[in-house]
Amino acid sequence: MSLNWLKKKDESASTGIFKQLKKGLSKTRQILSTDIDQLFAGSKKIDEGMLEELEALLITSDIGVRTTMELIERISIKSNQISDADELKKELKSEIKTFLMANPPPGKNIEGLRVIMVVGVNGVGKTTTIGKIAAKYTARGKKVLIVAADTFRAAATEQMMIWAERAGAEIVVRKAKTDPAAVVYDGVETAVSKKVDIVLIDTAGRLHTKINLMEELKKINRTISKKLTDAPQEILLVLDATTGQNALSQAKLFNDALGITGIALTKLDGTAKGGIVVGICRTLQIPLRYIGIGEKIDDLQDFDPALFTEALF
Amino acid sequence: MFEDLSEKLKFVFKKLKGHGKLSEKNIETGLKEVRMALLEADVHYKVAKKLVSDIKTRALGQEVMASLTPGQQVIKIVNEALTALMGSQHKGLQLSGTKPISIMLVGLQGSGKTTTAGKLSVLLRKEGRKPYLVPADVYRPAAIDQLRKLGEQLSVPIFPSNIEMDPVQICREARTAAQHEGCDTLLLDTAGRLHVNEELMGELSRIKDAVKPSDILLVADAMTGQDAVNIAQSFDRALDIGGVILTKMDSDARGGAAISIRSITNKPIKFIGVGEKLNALEPFYPDRMSSRILGMGDVLTMIEKAQEVVDEKAAAALQKKLRKNQFTLEDFRDQMVQIRKMGSFSELINMIPGMGNNKHLKNLKVDEKEFVGIEAAINSMTPQERRQHTIINGSRRKRIANGSGTSLQDVNKLLKNYAQVMKIMKKINKGGIHGIDRGMLPI
Predict the structure, then answer these.
(1) What pLDDT, on a 0 to 100 scale, did the predictor assign at position A4?
(2) Statement: residue A8 has pLDDT above 70
(3) Which residues of B touch A267 (CB under 8 A)?
(4) Which of A57, A138, B241, B352 has its CA 20 to 30 A from that of B333?
(5) Taking CA atoms, what residue in B is nearest to A269?
(6) Interface test with B, best of A53, A165, A246, A250 (most B CBs within 10 A)
(7) How many residue pairs bridge chain A and chain B with CB atoms within 8 Å of each other?
(8) Cα dihedral value B296, B297, B302, B307, nearest 10
(9) CA dist B364 → A265, B63, B288, B302, B360 (Å)
(10) How far apart are CA A99 and CA A94, in angstroms?
(11) How far apart are the first and last CA of chain B?
(12) How far apart are CA A300 and CA B421, in angstroms?
């Protein structure tokens, strides 16, 4: 069934990245596209019932009530011009793309030492994402250093070490329960003396509502800036695609505390659609940088709003 | 945990307040808001739809006049619907079977299985059992290490798995090893997996067949969105789970996943994870939770009390009087007596949604004896005085004070307060605020 679908759509798959992205998102797409096609099986015109079903589709992909209502409103204004599934899809895509394009990711000038701090709540996949990002950079011939600053969770350091080895990156580790800011201080110092290109800082997962733990992150951030004035160049928030509307609260609070520069959306290889990012991109103006679509080291894609929406359904 | 949802509903019903009757139209508006709140709380689209339609059926079928305010009536109905869905009792672990028994933990990546395994071992030990930790995640880097470290930290024995082993083999061998260690309860920490990964779901079924666990718990993140229904359904179909543990409940997640999971699997939520510390695991009480969802504190108790004491006809008559500025001292007294039947004033304040947190009201110490004095003073008035307070002159005041055992100042204060209330009432009536409810009275 999924093969059939892929065949049908294969003509439009042009680039390699696109194919890979489609592979990762195929289930998501299949669900959405089949449903929308079915919507038009009986009637041709867009009516209340159809909009309601469309609403169900958008809400079940975690896009959220508000964003959904906004999208539906925009669609229903144009309802006279839309007569079939393809047109509706096209309209929806372009609307969602507008939301996602509100804030294009920054250009990729990575001259000199670049420090990337990675943050997020527990269990979203920070360590795995860092391993994958490290592999991306080492593949481009960059010298990468990982700082294992999650000294709290049992065996987090061991997990990071395995990923560093897989990615061909160097790693700075300290004993469990060491002050993470101290680990980061050492890490940045090592990065400078070893003249690496990229520093990836793994922090312990924490709920965005725990004030003291958020303060700890701010301290880590200050430690980095004290060592290197312009650093960290990026603060990446990792979000789990399975997460519902709470992701917005996560993004807000991490952004308030640190000023998030980009988002990595993980676990998109399941049935969760991660629709919440549409609302996050729109309201907080934070670009989506990466999407995680599997457990393998190369299962991380650069996010491209055009490709993403094109591949969504 | 459910704070956001309760705040929403509070707001919804604040809007509903001020309508005299619970008509089909204002139920609709209210229900729309309830639906929005449920969806924003991540309750699944279909589940929310069904809940709202249940609530509507209940609301329309009910005697509307029996309620204090339309809003409170709806709260009660929403609460009943949620309680009906969530069940009413806490369900613990299923621990029967020939020892050593096994408890299997399953779930997506990052839902918190390993930490929960550690927490459960603490809980089981407290109950006098001898837990044995079994790391069966051979895929995630250092997952075995993580559980081993937790085991060391807690001094709970742990099976020496390694990543070369097959997870089914690990679980099978662990049983014998547990017996040797004198342990009676195995906690099988399986690898996180996506519910759509057929190969890995098959592995779980094989573990189940091999060790026949007494309980299988789905560990799910409280922040899960709409996908919670797919996840719960897939794991339940593959394994016939015994229950759910909801983790990260100490976040600000609205926790609608709890409602979705329960409604789709009909399996109980047994425990909730409420922190990173290894004792931060609490039993889940569905009945407490549904009033927590509403966030109304004891408002339900208050509604029940109010229903017992308030005579509806009298209340309706009173409203009419209030609107026509005919609220006499007699009514003032009756009103006070009725409210006092419901309990002490400070107790009542805490029961009113939003009032419990009000700083001014928290610090407000109400002298219950003062009410006795007021009541006595009004009782010492002639019927005419009660209906027409303007005729109460100096000598009448003195007589009232003497007759009721209060001081002249007390009587003056009472009359001043009453005059003020009348002034407010007039203002309100002029301002066009319809349907004044009893909560607005100064006592």
Answers:
(1) 33
(2) no
(3) 108-110, 194
(4) B352
(5) B194
(6) A246
(7) 132
(8) 40
(9) 50, 36, 28, 20, 6
(10) 9
(11) 33
(12) 68
Of the candidate CATH numbers 3.30.70.3340, 3.40.50.1000, 3.40.50.2300, 3.40.50.300, the domain formed by B101-294 belongs to: 3.40.50.300
User: CB–CB of A243 and B223 under 8 A?
Assistant: yes
* pLDDT band at residue A239 using 50, 70 and 90 as cut-offs: very high
Show which of residues 225-244 on chain A sit within 8 Å of chain B, judged by CB atoms: 240, 242-244
Please name the amino acid found at residue B63.
Answer: E
Q: Does domain B301-440 have CATH number 3.10.410.10?
A: no
pLDDT above 80 for A13: no
Least confident of A45-49, A105-109, B103-107, B354-358: B354-358
Q: Which of B110, B141, B146 sits opposite A124 (nearest CB)?
A: B110
Interface ipTM: 0.83
Whether B225 sits inside 8 A of A207 (CB atoms) is no
H/E/C letters for each residue in A106-136? CCCCCCCCEEEEEECCCCCCHHHHHHHHHHH
Residues of B in contact with A295 (CB under 8 A): 139
Mean pLDDT along residues B370-393: 86
Question: Which 242-261 residues of chain A touch chain B by CB within 8 A?
Answer: 242-247, 249
Three-state DSSP class for residue B248: coil
